[in-house]
## 1
Amino acid sequence: MDDEPLVIAGEKFGSRLILGTGGAASLEVLEAALVSSGAEMATVALRRIDPRAHGSLLGVLGRAGVRLLPNTAGCFTARDAVLTANMAREAFETDWIKLEVIGDDRTLLPDAVELLDAAEQLVDDGFVVLPYTNDDPVLARRLEAAGCAAVMPLGSPIGSGAGIRNPYNLAIIAEQTTVPVILDAGIGTASDATLAMELGADAVLLATSVTRAREPVLMAEAMRRGVEAGLLARRAGRIPRRRYAEASTEFGGMAEWHRDTG
Amino acid sequence: MITVIVNGEARALDKAISVDELARSLGAGPTGVAVAVNDEVVARSAWAATEVGDGDRVEVLGAMQGG
């Protein structure tokens, strides 16, 4: 139904849903949710290896055939994020990086200054940088100008499920940006993903809303359909909002009935 | 005896060992693992030839679920 693929740094994706892998109760649930979501790319974090860990996340992602998108989750400074990105490149043999540089551990909101600094360094170093950013059109423009392959504004704080708090800013970012705009963070349910696409996002990245749903596999399917519905609706063109009704049925040709005035 | 800090924990070793040996001792597979010594990334191709000595800080990182 959607012939036009999403293109990021020259790579084509049939699916416009990117799945974050955090929060799943087990690797089995994650694998089933991945398949159900139809996602072709999934994020992965880098942490100290645990010799006692059982099961292989990379095995799951390999079987699902998704492209790996390593992230720099947990980094508070440009220096840490750049080092983590270099470790990820070495570990996963990919130049792609979801750049996260947070400034506060309660809100997990991006630190704009460190983020832009890290983005510039990583672009210079040949990375394909997908920055998780504030819903700030000016910062989005700066990140695009720095050479980022996409911009990924938040809808609301990570894991909050609070949806898209500033739809106007998301629409402005989508309108002004020539690289793909990926709504990242804050999605709570399928209608949020639909709204993101209706507002002009090219794709949606979500994790918690699927992995911590009561039925993750079912929610993954809902998200897939939600993203598709939003894209279709945007292409179809919504009607303008009006204060008063506009009858969809003609008044002309109405019968005249004799009222019984008794 | 030498002491190496591996993933935040002090480890006593008889002598300097290679990054390759150290990573394998932690269960590192053929892919999906990166090592830094004193905040410098060590390319996989250099693991065998890079020695870890007394006082070195080593980070051995791998894939984990994360958004």
Note: Chain A touches chain B at residues 20-24, 30, 43-49, 51, 57-58, 71, 73, 83, 86-88, 90-93, 158-159, 185, 205, 207-208 (CB under 8 Å).
## 2
Amino acid sequence: MQNERLKYIFLFFIQIIFISNIVAGPWPVPKGKAYYKLSEWWLVFDQHYTDAGQIDPNVTTGIYTTAFYGEYGLTDRLTAIAYAPLLVRNTMNNLVSNTTSEVLVEGDAINTVGDIDLGIKYGLTKVGASVPISATLMLGIPTGETSGGRQGNLQTGDGEFNQLVQVDIGTGFSIGKTSAYASAYTGFNNRTNDFSDEFRYGIEGGVNLLNKKLWLIGRLFGVESFKNGATAESVTSTSIFANNSEFTSYSLEAAVYITDKVGVSANIASAFRGEIIAASPSYSVGVFWDLKK
Amino acid sequence: MKFQHLLFYLIIIISASSCIGDDIVFDTIDPEVRIMNPVDTIGLGETYQFKFDYFNNVGQQVSDQAGVWTSSNPDIISIDANGLATAIQVGNSEIQVETEADGFTITDTYIVAVGENTVVTVQERSGSIRTTSSYALEGDFTLSESESGIELSFENNYNASTALPGLYVYLTNNPNTTSGALEIGRVETFSGIHTYQIENAGVNDYSHVLYFCKPFNVKVGDGQIQ
């Protein structure tokens, strides 16, 4: 369908969830080991970056995602990856007259599964390499809702099948007695249905504190659109979707191990520059099971 | 407490806070009274029935509003309390309708001539749209009568951003909201000359052309119809 070709402004921001969840560095999970995470991510925004990079207001929109993320070591160099937004709630506020207190435009909400991402990561360097490099292929499965709600303007998926190829490089090191790591990645996201393809990049660093109980992680990442997809001008249907979104964002995460294998994490991410994306921070909290040890 | 329980309670808290809230729209405007069927010339000895509409402080038409009609030169054109004008002798007179709104007096006037025959010229109004956001929107337009209603024509200097999802154009009496506005349709032409045909509407029915991003209820720009 034509109106599934392009993507909503707010939905694009969902990519940030996924990016900040999967940027796990170039280290494949050892064979038979696993890492799982169950998280709640949310973003509420009443302003967005325009195509000129300026910030404009919009009706307050909320996205709440309960998601499962998992990595499993198929071999010592090959890891299976899955990101499954099990429940995505998308809301829009009522518009109420300041003069009459009447509801001018009624708000709306939908609750559905989101778009699922499946992939594999392969270690290009030998296990134990001081500077490991890996390649990742992620497939975006369009399992979400593309036009929900009374006006068809709520969405939990983009309706397109995309393929992300990514290369990661990193290294672990010590700062005094403190363990740390740094990594970087670059990738190409091939998108279908007239969506613009994307160049992705990011760097990440983490330090291990409190006797290896606490990881503090900082990320800087972004997406640059090739702007080779459809626009409102080139789509002749009644499409109401946007395209060519891009951003540069940061995220900060704290992960605390409660036991050797179980911990909780909290994350904040926000774009500090963008085009056609939300201009508010997103938050997530989760419980993870680190079964790699 | 198990971690699963902790997560469960956390999700409950977050879900409870994810209800649909209210965004306030500052939609107050100045009330307006408008002569809806102006005429250029009334034939000598003939009568003409003027009509007016009153639009309140949110641009809604109020049908039972009282108005007072006057003529600046009653020796040339007389007008009764119901807006019925009579052309008495050749000349010009300013026809005025006056009403009370929230303690203020508001008026609309129109200069009318008396001649050989009654002449109702083809109504045409114009204006320029301008962006009220960071998205590009500009251009001159003309609103004129057509066989089935009116047509809204944009000139060659028209330009609108293609980046927005769901850009729609409206006619409205309140440029702050699409509530009560006439939705013309989704914007499919983003530069240059183009025309919208609008049925069952009059040239004087609306005060503004309005551009909104419909999916996000974001105002993009407007243009007053002069």
Note: The two ends of chain B are 69 Å apart (CA to CA).
## 3
Amino acid sequence: MLKNREKNLERNLVVKSSTDNLSVIREFMTAAAADCGCNDELTGKIILAVDEACTNIIKHAYKYSPEGDIGINIKLTNSKLVISITDSGEHFNPGEVPTPNLLEYQKKKKAGGLGIFLMRKLMDEVNYKILNDNRNLVELVKHLK
Amino acid sequence: MADFNVSARGVGSVNVLELKGYLDAHTAPELEKAFNKLIDDKSFNVVVNFKDLNYISSAGLGVFMAYVETMRENKGDIKFSNMKENVFNIFDLLGFPVLYEFYKDETEALEKFKVQ
């Protein structure tokens, strides 16, 4: 029998853009990562990266309106895990956010700005594009060894 | 479902905040409330005990970043204790250990306030 992680796999979830749903997203990601054969450490990284991406969507794309849709598609193909997260809110390119300066943020009593940096640290690739239907797509890529 | 809880207790001149559960963008306002109360009460010496905290995202980390300066301006501090490895790793990834003190247990963190 093939190990789970050698299989190709696809999972989908659509939730409303409420911070309430971050726990739903984490539960979904926990199950999907287990199906992909990820160990605890890797599962933790993937869950956090997706949480950060969805938090950014709620905050910046939908400006805390809980009526928007967040779509999550997980695809495992030949040990490459691609998590595609879509929304129909305002365009927000995480690539344009500067690397945070912790000391400076602290002096300014600034609470935000760390999420994208974390996503980049946790995943192998963080890609952003605007789809033909004007939705935003954030793509998180991890190569499973 | 309450997936996060913060409770405060005084130990001498120090206030200990005990965190439990999952700290994310949904639950971070609870922690902000706790810090605002400490500031209203002029309690600037704070130990945050992470013993029962299972998860933190940048929304949670941001709360400490937003409040530590106020505590330090008032000759206090926020010190961390009892952190699980997976939680510490996130603080570490963002470079927090350079700017904050982390202790294995609460007593050790409390002692540091006595020395100051």
Note: Residues 58-73 of chain B form the longest helix (16 residues).
